[in-house]
Design brief:
Elements lengths: L1 H48 L21 H32 L5 H14 L3 H15 L6 H25 L3 H9 L4 H30 L2 H6 L17 H11 L3 H34 L1
Helix pairs in contact: 1-10, 2-5, 2-7, 2-9, 3-5, 4-5, 5-7, 6-7, 7-10, 9-10
C-alpha cells in the first residue's frame, strides 16, 4: 500500500515539476527578449546618432536651415515639461488623495471617476491633439502656443498621475493611519505627515511616467504648439520640442542625420530624468527612516 502511494505521489509531482520548469523557462525567455529588444534599440540609436552629434552648428543658440540646431527645441521641451507638470500635478495629486483618503469606498461617484480616468488613459494622443486644437486654439483663441500645448498635455498625463498616486496611497498599511488617529492627529495631518511621506516613491514614479510621455509626445503638439523653430519666449508663443524636431527632420524637411543625433540627446535626457528621480526617491526614504 505504501509503495502504491509513493508511486502516485511521484506521478503527481512530475507534471508539477515539469510545469514549473516550463514556466520558469518561459519567464526567462520573455525577460531575455525584452532586454534584447531594448538593447538593440539603444545600440541602433547610439550607433546611428552619436557620429552626427559633432555636426557643425547642431548646438547653436539659434536655429537656421543650415545648422538645424536642436538647442531651441531642448529649451522648449523644458518649458513644456515644467508648465504641464505645474498644471497636472496639483490636480492629479489632490484628486488621488480624495479618492483614497476622503471618499467612502462604497461611493458610486468614486467608481465613475476611476472609470473615466482609465478611459482617458486609453485615448490616442491624436484625439487629444484634435481636442486641443478645437478647444484651446479655436474656441479660446490661444493659437499655436505654449498655453494650448501645455493644457492639452496636462489633460493627457492627468490619468497617469492620478492612478499611480492612488495606488501608492493604497499600498500604505491602514495601521499607519490608525496609529496616527490613535495619537490624536486629524485626517489632514495624518495624510500629509504620515501617509504621503511613505508614498513618495510611488508618487515620483508617476511623475516620471508623466515626464516621459510629455517629452516623447508629438501628435498632440503638432496641432496645438506647431513646429516653429524659434525658442518660446512667452505663453502665447509656439515652438517645437525635441520629439517634434525629430519628426520635422524626418518628414517635413528630411534630414535623417539630425533626427538620429536628436534621438540620442532625447534618450540621454530621459535617462537623466529617471536617474535623478530615483535618487530623489531614495533620499526621501532615507530621511524618513532617520
Amino acid at each position: 500500500m505504501k509503495h502504491t502511494l509513493t508511486k502516485c505521489r511521484t506521478f503527481i509531482k512530475r507534471p508539477r515539476k515539469l510545469a514549473d520548469i516550463l514556466l520558469t523557462a518561459f519567464v526567462w525567455l520573455a525577460a531575455a527578449i525584452t532586454v534584447a529588444v531594448l538593447g538593440f534599440l539603444l545600440m541602433y540609436i547610439i550607433i546611428n546618432g552619436v557620429p552626427h552629434l559633432l555636426r557643425p552648428g547642431l548646438f547653436s543658440r539659434t536655429f537656421t536651415t543650415e545648422n538645424q540646431s536642436m538647442i531651441p527645441a531642448m529649451i522648449n521641451t523644458v518649458y513644456f515639461v515644467l508648465f504641464t507638470l505645474l498644471l497636472a500635478i496639483p490636480v492629479g495629486f489632490f484628486a488621488a488623495i480624495y479618492l483614497v483618503e476622503y471618499a467612502k469606498r462604497s461611493n458610486k461617484f468614486v467608481g465613475v471617476i476611476r472609470t473615466m480616468t482609465e478611459t482617458l488613459a486609453g485615448i490616442p494622443s491624436i484625439v487629444y491633439g484634435l481636442f486641443g486644437m478645437m478647444m484651446f486654439r479655436n474656441t479660446f483663441g490661444w493659437g499655436r502656443s505654449l498655453l494650448a500645448g501645455g493644457f492639452t498635455l496636462a489633460i493627457m498625463v492627468l490619468p497617469i498621475i492620478i492612478r499611480t498616486t492612488e495606488e501608492s496611497l493604497k499600498a500604505i498599511p491602514d495601521s499607519y493611519r490608525e496609529g496616527s488617529f490613535g495619537l490624536g492627529a486629524g485626517r489632514l495631518r495624518t495624510v500629509f505627515r504620515i501617509v504621503l511621506p511613505a508614498a513618495i516613491p510611488g508618487v515620483i514614479a508617476g511623475i516620471i511616467l508623466a515626464v516621459g510621455r510629455i517629452v516623447g509626445e508629438t501628435a498632440a503638439l503638432i496641432f496645438t504648439s506647431g513646429t516653429m523653430t524659434d525658442t518660446i519666449t512667452g505663453f502665447s508663443d509656439g515652438g517645437r520640442t525635441l520629439s517634434l524636431h525629430i519628426y520635422a527632420n524626418t518628414m517635413e524637411s528630411p534630414n535623417v542625420e539630425v533626427a538620429a543625433a536628436t534621438s540620442v540627446v532625447l534618450l540621454l535626457i530621459v535617462v537623466g530624468i529617471n536617474t535623478l528621480s530615483h535618487y530623489i526617491a531614495k533620499l526621501s526614504m532615507r530621511k524618513r527612516v532617520k
